[in-house]
Amino acid sequence: MTHARTARALLGALLLCALCVPAMAQRQDGDIIKKTVVSQSNSMSVFEITYWSTGLRVKGFLFQDPRKANKALPGVVFNHGGVDGVPRLTKERCKQLAAQGFVVFAPSFRGEDGSEGEIEVADGEVDDAISAAILLMGWPGVNKSRIAMVGTSHGGIVSLLAATRMNFKAVACIYGVTNTHTWYHNHLIAKGMDVSDPLSVKVYGKYPDGLKPEAFRKRAPALDADKINSPVLLLYGDKDEIVPVSQGLEMKTALEKLKKPVKMKIIKGATHGFLFRFESGKPKAERAMAQQGWDEMLAFLRKYLK
Fold first, then answer.
1. Is 295 helix (H, G, I), strand (E, B) or coil?
2. Domain annotation for the chain: domains and CATH numbers
3. How many Å is the Cα radius of gyration of the chain?
4. pLDDT tens per residue across span 220-231
5. Confidence label for 26 from pLDDT (cuts 50, 70 and 90)
6. Can you say whether the dihedral through the CA atoms of 92, 158, 152, 67 is positive or negative?
7. pTM here?
8. pLDDT at 306
9. 234 vs 173: CA distance, rounded Å
10. DSSP letter string over 116-141?
11. Residue 231 preceded by cis peptide, ω within 30
12. Dihedral (Cα; 12, 17, 21, 24), 10-degree rounding
């Protein structure tokens, strides 16, 4: 009787495992776990979405004009700057972009806004961006063959790195680093900037003797331009003291050598973050620079997505 009970228990356990396999198999990158309505109006729907990305529950925000929900619109993944979640002004820009006839998704990335995981800086975040693109491709009202990726600052390098692994109709890098080695050594160190903060040390190592060469190499899309098969827009400000124009020029040169489609626009007088200085309280000159950058990006997206 003991052997019979043991056999039945073993059989039951095997059956339970067999039933669990399909459920585990459903955890695919880009699959939606939870969807919540953040706001709803006649012209704009905003959803907070939790989705799978390399086994992590990652959050993001989706923006869509409900009047066009039944149309096959192009989709844009908008990768934010910084490592503190999706900023308010990024959400406003996403709404503006959605109003222009795009479905927009802004991932929060791992370790941000309640997403699982830890901040990795242009590493696991690339997985989150690609998973966001997969999510967007399956969203109702999106033409899955017309997906673009846009990113500012940290989101800029994330977008370029994603493009080395997945083809998009268009990719826009806005004041993003394109080679962390040259940026770190030729800009940060050369100008005496502090690189001793905990996150920098965690990612790149301690300067000068404890640096991690592999950390710089994996964050250098300019060195992997041969893997990028999407048209690229590079937007930079000539007064940017955080990510200099040279970073955009390095990417542009690498793509041009390979005869790949690339356009670079330098906004005169613009500093880091210029795309978000569009609100009425900002100086007129800054609002003009923000508008110039926005118009360049919008024209680029329309050219390749419409």
1. helix
2. 29-179+220-305 (3.40.50.1820)
3. 22
4. 999 999 999 999
5. low
6. negative
7. 0.92
8. 84
9. 5
10. SS---SSSHHHHHHHHHHHHHHTSTT
11. no
12. 130
Angle at 87 between CA 30 and CA 81, to 5 degrees: 75
Q: Is the pLDDT of residue 3 over 60?
A: no
Place of tokens 């000539």: 238
Indicate the burial class of 305 (C-beta count within 10 angstroms; 0-12, 13-18, 19 or more).
Answer: buried
Decide if 139 contacts 103 (C-beta within 8 A).
Answer: yes
Q: Are strands 210-211 and 142-152 parallel, antiparallel or unpaired?
A: unpaired
CB atoms within 10 A of CB 3: 7
Cα 96 to Cα 10, 48, 294, distances in angstroms: 58, 17, 10
Name the nearest CA neighbour of 170 among 83, 117, 124, 228: 228
Please check whether residue 270 is in contact with residue 174, taking contact to mean a CB–CB distance below 8 angstroms.
no
Distance of CA 9 to the CA centre of its chain: 48
Alpha-helical regions (H) of the chain = 2-25, 88-99, 124-137, 154-163, 180-183, 198-204, 213-217, 245-257, 284-305
Tokens of 76: 């844009």
Which class for 270: exposed (0-12), middle (13-18), buried (19 or more C-beta within 10 A)?
buried
- Asked if residue 33 has pLDDT above 90, the reply is yes
Closest CA to 131 of 22, 220, 51: 51
